[in-house]
Give the backbone structure.
Amino acid sequence: MSQVKIKAKIKEGYKQAVQARMHSLVADASEPFGSKDHDLSPHELLLASLGACTSITLEIYAQKKGWDLQDVSVDMQDEEVEDPNQPGKKMTRITRSISVSGNLTEEQVESLKAIADKCPIHKLLTGPKEVNTELKRLASV
């Protein structure tokens, strides 16, 4: 189970303090929402999660197989496109472009491509899920 805490920095625009275990970072809204664009947006953090998980998954898989995977890079992009199943409606398309190098056969490269879809974040995004929301009202400070 993973746990991440986010605390709004109300007096700093839309900045959000993000804390996970002993690690921290700041997220921010993108410029169209009035941000100064100093930090990663939530969309960029989501893409970063999928890209990092993909790269780690390929590294682990190649290492277990004893393959000569020397480098992995993942470029992530999302865009709004027409939904082919619902004309007139939009959907999000995420494009993940993976580059690998090393002494790899074509079969190994194809296996790595298939394994990319098995990374935990890919499964989280594409599989069944449930999001529960609780809201607590705290006393004003």
Observations:
- The mean pLDDT is 92.
- Residues 1-40 form one domain.
